[in-house]
Amino acid sequence: MTELQRLREAFRTALDLPADEPVDDLRYQDHEKWDSLAHMSLVAAIEDEFSVMIDTDDVINMSSFAEAARILGKYGVDVK
Amino acid sequence: MSVFTLSQSDREKQLLPQLVDLVAHHRRHCAPYDRILAASGVPSISEMSDLPWLPVRLFKTLELKSIPDDEVFKVLTSSGTTGEVSRIYLDKAAAATQTRQLGATLQTVLGPRRLPMLIVDTKSILKDRRSFSARGAGVLGMATFGRDHVWALDDDGAVDLDGIRGFLAKHGDQPFLIFGFTYLVWLHLYEIAREHGLDLGNGILIHSGGWKKLVDQAVSPEEFRNRLAAVGLTRIHNFYGMVEQIGTIFLEGPAGGSLYCPDFADVVVRDPETWAELPPGKPGLLEVVSTLPTSYPGHVLLTEDLGVVHGVDDGDWPGKRFSVLGRLPRAEARGCSDTYRSAEA
Fold first, then answer.
1. What is the C-alpha separation between A11 and A70, in angstroms, rounded?
2. Which chain B residues contact residue A60 at CB under 8 A?
3. Nearest-CA distance B48 → chain A (Å)
4. CB contacts < 8 Å between A and B, how many?
5. Which CATH architecture best describes the domain A3-31+39-74?
6. ipTM of this model?
7. Containing domain of residue B319, as a range?
8. What average pLDDT score do residues B50-66 get?
9. pTM summary value
10. Domain residue extents for chain A
């Protein structure tokens, strides 16, 4: 799996979305499943999947799928 | 990185023009606010204590927002003792700002990394994810600053000693975060730690929720600190904040005993009879001031809490340092909101 596929999978698993649901345009709080509680699960899922530890500011700023991909770049994960 | 940097004079120099702008902004965009100010008369503003305040209780009786309905992104509610509920309206920008500034405030004492987190509460407060209690929302807001969260209480609210022991075995040798409401920490963590010899030495405790239940048991804030220090927990930060000024918290400094204002906030203590500002050492009604509220007029709020300023620019961090002494007895507070009720009519 590419990093992009792994990130999509982490989103679908953490937010409890169907396997075929597109996630690339998801935004925090815009999707009913991505609320503040799910956000914590999502961060944990991404950390597990990529073996990284995400800092507080990045958790706060992770407001979309695209932003999550960008943030992962800071931790050496090249999502594309 | 710290948001506790501004001396009192620098703070006033920086914040006062922003607050004067906020008064004008909210008058333009929130008709009830404008009516209240027009009715009570707006003085010329040359210092913090000149700013017109709203009694915090007004958010329970009036719809106070400075954004159009279609920009309301979140409505926060807080239950009061009387069953009335404050309604606080946030647009996207205000929601993002409050989260960011709360983050900056807490990172002053927690650092940039998310620490393993022991939550002195039960997971069942998050059961209904469509409507969290104020307690649930508080825990969830704080959860951002932690990772590997462990709940210290089981679903029935009983202490999960094995869970706490497991957490400490895994994370106890490095800094970790403990969060809980003050009386829960006292009842369920302190007692258990003492009884079972748990080592909380690497913990950083963040707690809030008021002292009333502890004062009823004759436990003062000083004793709380001293007794927790006896079980190894010496890094302790109480905080004071309210949903009506979401994102702004007043945080206890490392030495303990005083709350401090972040750089975007201030406090004024007022004489409950004359409303004049009281000097350090004189207890009175606490007014909280913050530049964060842009989507609702919560920038200058007269609380129903008694407080006292202990000193200015003479503590752990610059600015005023103060304590919250408890609630103003209800009968005494009635006068001020009646004034405003008649202005609304």
1. 15
2. 99-100, 103, 144
3. 31
4. 43
5. Orthogonal Bundle (1.10)
6. 0.85
7. 1-83+259-345
8. 95
9. 0.90
10. 3-31+39-74
